[in-house]
Specification:
With 173 residues, this protein is mainly alpha-helical. The protein has one domain. α2 packs antiparallel against α3. The chain starts with a helix and ends in a 15-residue tail after the last helix.
């Protein structure tokens, strides 16, 4: 999928997951969906949004990828791990440079732009990695990090420890 289209699809899935639990109140959605405005919840939504999009893309393209399937899946797994952190480090540029932004419109516009950009970065990186055959050590590392990420995002969806990453900024007002 072209990076711009993948970024747009990622943004749409992310937006749906951002509000899905709030709209439905369906408890199992807490695993994928945002339940607050904390950094953790945004990391979680980005991770699952990119993972779901990549899984759908793999199902759609698996015949076309053929013998490259392993490399394609590896590239998407690496991007799935990186995209949430791209959102965090890019989003924090504004607070780091100008401080708190009091305009909801500017804050929302920045958040949408950053989310799109993160999806684009993930798509560009996976396209660059797709033709490569990863080593067993690299594959094992990525699989381990995916498993740890899944545990992290599922476990702390239902009970959060006291760490700054998990603080809902709305509760600080």
């Amino acid at each position: 999928m072209r990076p711009g289209w993948k970024a747009l699809a990622f943004l749409i899935i992310f937006t749906v997951l951002h509000f899905a639990y709030e709209w439905t109140g369906w408890r199992p959605l807490m695993i994928l969906s945002g339940t607050s405005e904390s950094v953790f919840e945004h990391l979680k939504m980005a991770f699952w949004s990119y993972a779901l999009l990549s899984a759908a893309e793999a199902l759609w393209q698996r015949r076309r990828w053929g013998r490259e399937l392993g490399g394609q899946l590896y590239a998407r797994a690496v991007s799935t791990l990186l995209v949430p952190w791209v959102i965090v480090i890019v989003w924090y540029l504004v607070p780091g440079i100008v401080g708190k932004v009091d305009s909801i419109a500017l804050d929302l516009g920045w958040a949408i732009g950053v989310t799109y950009l993160a999806g684009w970065v993930g798509a560009v990186l996976e396209r660059e990695m797709s033709g490569k055959r990863p080593s067993p050590v690299a594959t094992g590392t990525v699989v381990a990090l995916l498993a740890i990420s899944c545990f992290f995002f599922v476990r702390f969806s239902f009970g959060k420890p006291w760490l700054d990453l998990f603080v809902d900024p709305v509760s600080l007002k």
